[in-house]
Design goal:
Layout lengths: L22 E6 L6 H10 L3 E4 H7 L6 H10 L12 H8 L3 H25 L4 E5 L17 E6 L2 H12 L3 H8 L5 H6 L3 E4 L4 H26 L1
Parallel strand pairs: 1-3, 1-4, 2-3, 4-5
Helix pairs in contact: 1-9, 3-5
Bound molecules: dephospho coenzyme A and adenosine-5'-triphosphate (ATP).
Length: 228
């Protein structure tokens, strides 16, 4: 399902930015779907990657204002002895207490958006990939409206579970607890301009990314000329 010849501006523009000289492709997908594998490939083609997962780790660094806010909201138990965030404890808490997840996101998402915007302003590649697991879910985080197109990396739930549990040695139960806080495949794919089914090997993933990359280069050129 790819609208590869469509205008760089989506037919679903309500939440997307209207004018931006640099084409920003939002890359999303469920846990373990293959977002990092896809963004690593785009990076190898010279495309700047803004990774919301990486930013989400950076904004809660030891001593950061965001981590202090989390500590004030939840208590000292969110910290390890060295003052860094106890990610496992926070994960267990928020993915079993939906209201706590909302409170955590209310603190982290504005910080993630600000950092993403700063990275976007500093980017120099022909177009930019903004990778975010919650690009569509977290509308209030406002990441989707930084993007002109949305690319979804899709995989079956069984494949997601298998890949995520092999990668992190996390229990299937923990991964399922995260998955229930993410959109279903069908709902996510409905928001996509381009969907890649990542159900075979990495070579098959890369072969599907190549024509999209060529299309994004063309769209990025069009956007640049339109804005000049
Ligand atoms: C809950 C936290 C502490 C767990 O940390 P942990 O190191 O165990 O996991 P990590 O951050 O690497 O995330 C692993 C995966 O969980 C999923 N995930 C992360 N946050 C969320 C969330 N708020 N809702 C649903 N899924 C999420 C993503 O698929 C992500 O790739 C951490 O994920 C977090 O701070 N989340 C809130 C910030 C956020 O929304 N990040 C997503 C990027 S926009
Ligand atoms: N087509 C594939 N064939 C084999 N392994 C794959 C394929 N795609 C991804 N993987 C592997 O599956 C694991 C999960 O992929 P990846 O880390 O890219 O997912 P993700 O969507 O970024 O996950 P998360 O949301 O948890 O960050 C990784 O170990 C990755 O190397």
């Amino acid at each position: 399902m790819s609208n590869s010849n469509a205008s760089p501006y989506s037919h679903k523009p309500q939440t997307r930015q209207k004018q931006n000289k640099t084409l920003v492709v939002g890359l999303t997908g469920g846990i373990g779907s293959g977002k990092s594998a896809a963004s690593d490939w785009f990076a190898q083609q010279g495309i700047d990657i803004i990774d919301a997962d990486v930013i989400a780790h950076e904004v809660v660094a030891k001593g950061s204002a965001t981590l202090r806010k989390i500590q004030r909201k939840f208590g000292d138990w969110v910290l390890n002895g060295d003052g860094s965030m106890d990610r496992a404890a926070v994960r267990t808490h928020v993915f079993t207490h939906p209201e706590a997840l909302i409170e955590l996101e209310a603190i982290t998402h504005p910080a993630i958006r600000e950092a993403a915007k700063a990275q976007l302003a500093a980017s120099t590649s022909p177009y930019v990939v903004l990778s975010a697991p919650l690009l569509i879910e977290a509308a209030e985080a406002g990441l989707a409206n930084l993007c002109q197109r949305v690319l979804v990396i899709d995989a079956s739930e069984d494949t997601q579970l298998e890949r995520a549990s092999q990668r992190d040695e996390q229990s299937v139960q923990k991964i399922k607890a995260i998955m229930v806080n993410q959109l279903s495949r069908e709902a996510r794919n409905r928001h996509a301009d381009d969907v890649i089914l990542n159900d075979r090997d990495l070579a098959a993933l890369y072969a599907q990314l190549e024509p999209l990359h060529q299309n994004y280069l063309t769209l990025a050129q069009q956007l640049k000329y339109a804005a000049d």
